[in-house]
Write a structure and sequence with these properties.
With about 170 residues, the protein is α+β, with helices and mostly antiparallel strands. The protein has helices at about 65-85, 120-125, 130-150, and strands at about 10-15, 15-25, 30-35, 40-45, 55, 60-65, 95-105, 105-110, 115-120, 165.
Length: about 170
């Protein structure tokens, strides 16, 4: 399956300028962007489900067929509900959603940017070995964040080392 081509460097999406691609998965593309007004970095997640859409030369996203169009529209509706649910949280171990918008015929979720490394890179840098203290220091905040989500019936369906961030301060 071909991945949707990410937007190029310096592309303007609403008020956000693409600075680099952070991640590229089966359902979306994640960018590090700069707010053109505030001059502050944010993470912008673009809904680009590879099985359903393609990117046109003008930057817009288009369903690859009529069946995919319907599935994509349903996914976009679910994406806004997810953004609304995520925006309810103000927890140190949950990424904070600050804005949702539609552009390029798809949906975008803007989140606070936290500098750091994902858990996969963190583990790789340590040769895959952690002390008991390091493991607890990572597992406890992850569990606290998940507990907060689950307490209101929200389930994170993409828990993996690439989606857990170790901040620069540990």
């Amino acid at each position: 399956m071909q991945r949707v081509v990410p937007l190029p460097f310096d592309t303007l999406i609403a008020d956000y300028v693409v600075r680099r691609v952070i991640g590229h998965g089966g359902f979306g593309t994640t960018y590090l962007c700069e707010d053109s007004n505030l001059k502050k970095s944010f993470v912008v997640k673009e809904l680009t489900p590879h099985a359903l859409v393609t990117r046109r030369d003008n930057g817009t996203v288009a369903p690859i067929g009529p069946l995919q169009k319907r599935a994509f529209e349903e996914m976009r509706d679910a994406y806004v509900k997810e953004a609304q649910a995520l925006a309810m949280f103000s927890h140190p171990h949950i990424a904070r959603a600050v804005r949702y918008f539609n552009a390029n015929n798809t949906a975008y979720l803007v989140m606070e940017y936290e500098a750091g490394r994902n858990l996969r890179t963190y583990l790789k840098d340590r040769g895959g070995v952690l002390t008991d203290h390091e493991l607890e220091a990572i597992a406890r905040p992850l569990c606290e964040g998940r507990h907060e989500l689950h307490s209101v019936g929200f389930i994170h369906r993409d828990s993996e080392p690439d989606n857990a961030l170790i901040r620069r301060d540990g």
